Amino acid sequence: MSFMASMTAAAAAIRRKPRRRLIDSFRQNRLAQVTGVQQIVDLLFSSGPKSEAEAQTFAELKQVSVGLGLAATGLFFYPLQIIGMIVLLPIMSGPFKTAYSHLVHERRVSADVLNAIFLAATLASGFLFALSIGGWFVVLVKWLAIKTEDHTKQGIVDLFGQQIRSVWMLVNGAEVEVPVEQVQTGDLIIIHAGQMAPMDGVIVEGHASVDQHMLTGEAQPAEKGPGDRVLAATIVLAGRTVVQVEKAGDETTAAQIGRILTDTDDFKESLVARATIFNDSIALPFILASGLLLPFLGVERALGVLMSTPGYRMVLYGPLSMLSYLHLAAQQGILIKDGRSLELLEGVDTVVFDKTGTLTLEKPYVSAIHTWAGFTEEKVLAYAAAAEARQSHPIARAILQAAATQGIITDAVDTAEYEIGYGIQVRLDGHTVRVGSRRFMSMHAIEIPLAAESLQEDLHHAGHSMVMVSVDGILVGAIVLQPTLRPEAETIVRQLRARGLQLYIISGDHKAPTQQLADQLGVDGYFAEVLPEDKADLVRQLQAEGRKVCFVGDGINDSIALKTANVSISLHGATTIAIDTAQIVLMEGNLAQLPAIFTLSDEFAANMRVNFLAATLPCVLILGGAIFLGWGVTTNLILYQISVPFALYNTVRPLLRQKGRAAANEQAQIAGQIHATMLLPDNATDGQ
């Protein structure tokens, strides 16, 4: 190719780039719009398993559709309108029964009484077609709401692996695929690499590397073999295991978590009760207003006033929004056991952290090594690491990590005797090595130098611990252990303070280390040397000062304080969820998700405000239209119901937005890969 031809081709390519970017941008936007529409269609009209309530409501929808069709045809042949109304009467009977109970037995005028008066007056006035339209819309809205709720609940459960439909079972030595519903306790199932455990059980054969992150928050896969337990919804990364089923179906840990997430009846009833109380309180004023305006406006416009009561739709919208945010939280690894906490978090102004196990990790770190009797620090650490080599408690892991960091290779011990709570004694290269507490050394008549006694006293007041090491009955060293601050703690504290929250630390530890941690993190205050049973009293003290308190603890010694706080958050793993008293559980096992909880609470409050506008704004328009514009019953009924799809969209908008972000990220990754490929030189793909 000539030089001029090459330049011409290059210039053309340059001119094409802006146009190509424009076309690509248009395609991506178009794809995003289509994806959003498809998500809404899938959400509302998916052919997934129907609940009993959904099936019943769908049957009612078909019935009112027939009635509406007859009423529409009745515009040309009036008797069909009457037949259509007869079809609707069984469904309309509910409000009349409830209204009778409230009016006669409870002696009160409720929203159901207002509805019954409206239905009776509309029917008596001959507005049959309008009533048919209204009845059809009411049942349609009910069906859409149930469909949305069922879809959201199913999505929450699916997060924990309940979408598994079949498993491989060991039957007479052969692997047979069977439906998951047929598996019972005691059966043997096979789980291969890449598969999800369908139920809880014990490994009887084989070894595997298991990812338990979803349930226990463990960052690293767990190596499991015969005798070890596996949990439903965990994933086998490598290996093959035969598992004897302990719990199946609704009894598994994953199913229990799914139930906790979807069992929100208390908070749902609270939301419904508040909306119902509001509707009942305004029912009588609207009935009286409609009656007083009847002589001036006429029947049809007076009925418009009667049907303009605001707030009725909040009975539907509130619980649906709550479920959406529970689902969204679960996607982020946040288990919200009590939906009420989402609402309460917005009012929280004070966060109290338990120190040990919450702001600090379970495993301490080696901060210093003291030596006596001519031993070096490296030799003392080597003896201690060898003795603790097969132990798994936090102190042993800290010592082994320190030895590994210094490149110390531990020798195998000949024998080992471990005394729970005191220490360990081993035989190593002909020497007797003991590693443990001061009391452990005294039990074996080992003399403690005054320097060691003084050192332990100082460390005790500083909140640090000390492990002593002896060789052949002589104390040769001591290893100092300090609590390990969570790596994310300082960042989380800064983020929470930026929100205007006041932060406190509460601890059973001594004053000096607690104060040191409080100063390091920059919190507002601390409480030291507090017994577990007194933590709740300190929470009550803060509440008595007018504060709304969120308590963050490990859920073991903090149960009373967790129950006392306005909102309680625990770092416990999900395997202990049944006995955990916290309202919210951080499944990752660290504090990194804490700011996200407050963000979700703010978004939930904003979403509920939109719900309130969606429920009340149409009613204001109807009231104004009936009084000033002469709108009739049909117009008002359609306007009252037409806002429902927008409100339902608002309740699921958080989930759609999250899916949209995930889709956008995936598209960006694909675009980046394509762009990187286009930048490769022509000869990069030669020979492929």
Name a few traits of the molecule.
single chain; 688 residues; alpha+beta; Calcium-transporting ATPase, cytoplasmic transduction domain A; 6 domains; 8-stranded antiparallel β-sheet; 7-stranded mixed β-sheet; 21 strands; disordered N terminus
Structure description:
This protein is α+β, with helices and mostly antiparallel strands. The protein has six domains: 1-45; 52-158, no CATH class; 166-249, Calcium-transporting ATPase, cytoplasmic transduction domain A, CATH 2.70.150; 260-323 and 602-661, no CATH class; 333-360 and 486-592, 3-Layer(aba) Sandwich (Rossmann fold); 365-482, Calcium-transporting ATPase, cytoplasmic domain N (3-Layer(aba) Sandwich), CATH 3.40.1110.10. 55% of the residues lie in helices and 16% in strands. It contains 22 helices and 21 strands. Strands 1, 2, 3, 4, 5, 6, 7 and 8 form an eight-stranded antiparallel β-sheet that branches. It has a seven-stranded mixed β-sheet with strand order 9-21-20-19-10-17-18, with helices on both faces. A hairpin with a 3-residue loop joins β12 (415-419) and β13 (423-428). α3 crosses α5, α5 (128-158) packs across α22 (644-678) and α10 (314-331) packs antiparallel against α20 (594-629). The longest helix has 43 residues, at 3-45. It is elongated, with a radius of gyration of 34 Å.
Secondary structure elements and pairings:
Layout: H1 3-45, H2 52-73, H3 79-105, H4 111-124, H5 128-158, E1 166-171, E2 174-179, E3 188-192, E4 200-205, E5 208-211, H6 213-216, E6 222-224, E7 229-230, E8 235-247, H7 253-262, H8 265-297, H9 299-306, H10 314-331, E9 334-336, H11 340-345, E10 350-354, E11 365-371, H12 377-387, H13 394-405, E12 415-419, E13 423-428, E14 431-436, H14 438-443, H15 450-462, E15 465-471, E16 474-482, H16 489-498, E17 502-506, H17 511-521, E18 525-527, H18 532-544, E19 549-553, H19 559-564, E20 567-570, E21 584-586, H20 594-629, H21 633-642, H22 644-678
Parallel strand pairs: 10-17, 10-19, 17-18, 19-20, 20-21
Antiparallel strand pairs: 1-2, 1-3, 3-8, 4-7, 4-8, 5-6, 5-8, 9-21, 11-16, 12-13, 13-14, 14-15, 15-16
